Amino acid sequence: MQLVPVNRSSVVAAAFPLLLLFHSAAFYLLPFLVPMATALVVGLVGVIAALLALARLAKFRNRSALVVVAVVSGTWLVWLLCPIKELGVLARFTVERRNYEAAVAQTKGGASPSCIAVQECESDGRTPPYLVFPFPGFLSGWIGIVHVPEESQAPLPERLKVFGSEPGCDPKPIAPHYYVCGFY
């Protein structure tokens, strides 16, 4: 028993949400390299999927055509309304949090964290230090997680200038002591 017949429109409709998932996951891996390249591919597949789904619905007016239209429409809504980049940043933070906390623990003893030597974090050199854990990126802009040792205090702009943030980074809290910042 086949619920949805396999045809061009259902294949493209199924590919669209899968590409959107890839696009979201790619923010975890390469947050500055991915958006333009994958967004173009996802958008193109989404437009083709929408056109094929509407053509199929106009031609056949059956349940399988309606399912294809619902999948494509739902995927477009998710893409337009959900914070895909923020989900990628949150996923990366969740996976790497243990490493961040280990580096912070090393600074509490007065030592320099080992992540500095392998360039997985940066310190502002003060006591207690701000630590920044950069995400992969290139060119002059990058984002990272900033650890602020003081509880309930947003990162101070003058301390962030060490990391390359001229007017400030507009920090967004992600967890106690941790903020997401874009450095330009």
Explained architecture:
The chain folds into 2 domains: 8-82; 87-183, no CATH class. It starts with 7 loop residues before the first helix and ends with a strand. It is an alpha+beta fold. Helix 1 runs antiparallel to helix 2 (34-60). Strand 1 and strand 2 (131-134) form a beta hairpin. A 5-stranded antiparallel β-sheet has the order 1-2-3-5-4. It is elongated. It contains 5 helices and 5 strands, in the order H-H-H-H-E-E-E-H-E-E.
Task: Quickly list its features.
alpha+beta; 2 domains; 184 residues
Q: What is the radius of gyration?
A: 22 Å
Largest sheet: 5 strands, antiparallel
* Overall 3D shape: elongated
Mean pLDDT: 81
Annotate the secondary structure layout.
Blueprint: H1 8-29, H2 34-60, H3 63-81, H4 84-108, E1 122-123, E2 131-134, E3 142-147, H5 157-160, E4 172-175, E5 178-183
Antiparallel strand pairs: 1-2, 2-3, 3-5, 4-5
Short description:
It is built from five helices and five strands, in the order ααααβββαββ. It folds into two domains: 8-82; 87-183, no CATH class.
